[in-house]
Amino acid sequence: MLSRPYSLAFAALAVMTLAEPAQAKEYGLVVGVNEYRAFEAWSPDKPAGLYDLQGAVNDAERIARAMRRSGVDLPDRRLLLDDRATKQGFLDAWASLLREAAPGDTLIVTYAGHGGQEREVSAPMDEADGKDETLMFHDFDPDRPREGRLNDDELRTLLEQAAAYNVIWVMDSCHSAGLSRSSSARNIMGQTRSGGLYDIPDEPALTEIKADAGDESGDILPHVTQILATETESKLVQETRIGGKLHGALSYYFADAVAGSADLDGDGIMTRSELAAFIEDRVFARMNQTQQPRILPRGDARPVFPAPQTAPLPVADRPFSPPKLPVHVIGAAPPGLDPGRTEKVATGALLTFEAQDGVWNVFNHTGDRITTISGGAERLVARATVLDGLDALKSTALPPVGIEAAQSVESQKVGSLVGFTFFPPDEKLRHLTLFNLASDGTLQYPLADEHKPISMNGHSLLFSVTPPTGADQLVAVFCSRPPLDLRAALRRGAGRTVSPGLLDALSDQSCQIGRIGLFTVSD
């Protein structure tokens, strides 16, 4: 929980890029692999090992719908799902892209599935850690690990062949470029898209692509924009439940971007900086700061492709009706867990209750321990429902809220000082309403001076950490005018368990929502 003693200063958000201006025609190639020929189906009671995924096909199908709605050329033969997503099937589809597109066209290629690593055994020996990263297709076989996969050096060779085109390459897999704060048991977090580390034979496979330069050579391919699921190659990517289905967060929000939601200024063109701001904000918040996408190269704000005129109505323009919250229970169910408001799931839960010696440890969907309870599970269900609703209500028609933390994402001790700076998303949205959802479900409000608009240079605050400890969530709402209904609802609920009814007061298209986590421990 937080208490505020005084103000603080702060720094700005990073922006990202792409390569050449978008052309009149866009072509797509979409890959989603849940089922692997050599893997078994996953379940939470199985031992650690390699298993099929559950959300990668959902990713591919959602991206495909967005591409087709937006006018991207994507025939069924370039939508590769499960057993059609072999390495050769991918190479054939890639070759068809190069044949059918004209120089200057844009090629959008997305991959959702397992990513692995292998020890470097042949030139180019360019990896500082001695490991190449790989994409693992349906026909990958751990007994023959040089087959059914595409490593990063091979990928660079393919991209070099496409120098006449603008390429957007999206990889939603582990080791594609995270889980940096707390590593919980896998039956709490659910599935990750890690395919393991392999010692590979020195002899190349027949299907292998000869690479003259490695992906770590330092040479930027100016025609390529890479959008990777994590900021470093060692991080894991976790599947999460959004809208009732398992997804990779990067794929989910990239589909929204392709459908037009990343055109933040509404000028009909999505720039690289807009695409970066949209994706990085959504993924970082949704995954509680454990996953930060990596977009290369950075610093280029030129156009990516035209924004479609048929973009879906932003969620914030529709009434919000929270569904049952997906929960996972390990051992006995805690008191207060209402089956009318919750749905028990084996993986992808937004909330996990683990029975232990008469109490329950409570975890969020990224494996962070929120708190420990002896009863009153309904408080945590209400809190998680509101957090899920906040993500759904974030406006796709407005730029993201800028939030910068003065401390790392590691857990902070009671008594320590923590700071945040909040930046208005737009000149017209400068009325800040700030509240906190404490780890025990208590609503804390007010936390900031609401009497005057916030400067575009940001508003900095310093707080001291107080009990209860766990996982707090600070919520910043910037509006074009003071949100009187929202503030009245917050005043009524202050000091009590947060109510999902608060979401009704947030359904205002003239406001933008941002949130950031604070993770605390008692000592």
Task: Please sum up the structure shown.
With 523 residues, the chain is α/β, with parallel strands linked by helices.
- The percent of residues in helical segments reads 10-25%
Count, helices:
9
Structural class call reads: alpha/beta
- Give the CATH level 1 class of the largest domain: Alpha Beta
* Share in β-strands: 25-35%
Please give the CATH architecture of the largest domain: 3-Layer(aba) Sandwich
Low-confidence stretches: 6-23, 125-129, 176-188, 213-217, 313-319
Got a strand count?
A: 28
Number of domains: 3
Q: Could you describe the 3D structure shown?
A:
The protein has 523 residues and is α/β, with parallel strands linked by helices. The chain has helices spanning 56-69, 87-100, 152-161, 186-189, 249-261, 272-286, 377-393, 484-493, 502-506; strands at residues 2-6, 26-32, 79-81, 106-112, 115-119, 131-136, 149-151, 166-172, 194-198, 224-228, 240-242, 245-247, 269-271, 294-296, 303-306, 325-330, 342-344, 351-356, 359-364, 369-373, 402-405, 412-413, 417-423, 431-437, 443-444, 459-465, 471-479, 511-521. The strands form seven sheets. It has a six-stranded mixed beta sheet with strand order 3-2-4-8-10-14, with helices on both faces. It has a five-stranded mixed beta sheet with strand order 17-16-18-19-20, with helices on one face. Helix 1 (56-69) packs parallel to helix 5. The model is unreliable at 6-23, 125-129, 176-188, 213-217 and 313-319 (pLDDT under 50).
Ordered list of secondary-structure elements with their pairings:
Blueprint: E1 2-6, E2 26-32, H1 56-69, E3 79-81, H2 87-100, E4 106-112, E5 115-119, E6 131-136, E7 149-151, H3 152-161, E8 166-172, H4 186-189, E9 194-198, E10 224-228, E11 240-242, E12 245-247, H5 249-261, E13 269-271, H6 272-286, E14 294-296, E15 303-306, E16 325-330, E17 342-344, E18 351-356, E19 359-364, E20 369-373, H7 377-393, E21 402-405, E22 412-413, E23 417-423, E24 431-437, E25 443-444, E26 459-465, E27 471-479, H8 484-493, H9 502-506, E28 511-521
Parallel strand pairs: 2-3, 2-4, 4-8, 5-9, 8-10, 16-17, 16-18, 22-28
Antiparallel strand pairs: 1-26, 5-6, 6-7, 10-14, 11-12, 13-15, 18-19, 19-20, 21-23, 23-26, 24-25, 24-27, 27-28
Helix pairs in contact: 1-5, 5-6
